[in-house]
Structures are given as C-alpha cells and as structure tokens.
C-alpha cells in the first residue's frame, strides 16, 4: 500500500518501485541487474512493455529465459575459468 515503508514491501514490490524510478529518470540508456527476478508473469509482461517498447537502450543481466527471449541482442557469458 502507499503508506508502507520501502522495507515493508515484498521483493516484487521493491523491484517494481525500482523500475518505476528508472523510468522516471527518463534516460536514453538504462542498466538493470535481473529486472524480472522477483516478478510474476503478468508483471514481467508489463515491465517488458514499458522498458523495451520505447526509444531507449536497456542493458541488463538475467538468468530468466523469458526476459532473455524478449531482448534484441544477447551476449552469453559462460564459465571461463
């Protein structure tokens, strides 16, 4: 709810607040670490629509195949050791 402190929010709610802050900054390039990690499928769809259907560059890390499938370009890093 709107009267909750940030620490009282669930992980998914915190994730959405952080993404909203990124969007409000209105930058041409956004760097994200695991942007869909704590989100349900409907939230993932909304995030993808907001982030990927605009004229901005999104650079992210992700283990989520659903998110990776939505990206235009993917660089896969394997265990190099």
Shape: globular
Mean pLDDT: 88
Structural class determined from secondary elements: alpha+beta
Instruction: Output the helix-strand order.
Output: HEHEH
**Low-confidence parts, pLDDT < 50 over ≥5 residues?**
none
Percentage of residues in DSSP E strands: 5-15%
Number of helical segments with 4 or more residues: 3
Strand order of the largest sheet: 1-2
Specify the oligomeric state: single chain
What's the total number of strands?
A: 2
Percent of residues in helices comes to 40-55%
CA-CA gap between termini:
46 Å
Detailed description of the structure:
The protein has three helices and two strands. Strand 1 (29-33), helix 2 (41-52) and strand 2 (57-61) form a beta-alpha-beta unit. The longest helix is centred in the first third of the chain and has 15 residues, at 11-25. The termini are far apart. It is globular, with a radius of gyration of 14 Å. The chain has 81 residues and is α+β, with helices and mostly antiparallel strands. The chain has a two-stranded parallel ribbon with strand order 1-2. The model has no long low-confidence stretch (mean pLDDT 88).
Task: Write a brief structural summary.
Helix content is 41%, strand content 12%. It has 81 residues and is of the alpha+beta class. The relative contact order is 0.16.
Question: What labels would you give this structure?
Answer:
81 residues; alpha+beta; 41% helix
Describe the SSE topology.
Layout: H1 11-25, E1 29-33, H2 41-52, E2 57-61, H3 65-70
Parallel strand pairs: 1-2
């Amino acid at each position: 709810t709107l009267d909750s402190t940030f620490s009282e929010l669930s992980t998914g709610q915190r994730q959405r607040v952080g993404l909203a802050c990124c969007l409000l900054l209105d930058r041409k390039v956004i760097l994200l670490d695991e942007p869909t990690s704590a989100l349900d499928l409907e939230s993932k769809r909304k995030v993808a629509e907001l982030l990927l259907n605009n004229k901005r560059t999104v650079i992210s890390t992700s283990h989520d195949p659903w998110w990776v499938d939505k990206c235009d370009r993917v660089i896969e890093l394997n265990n190099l050791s």
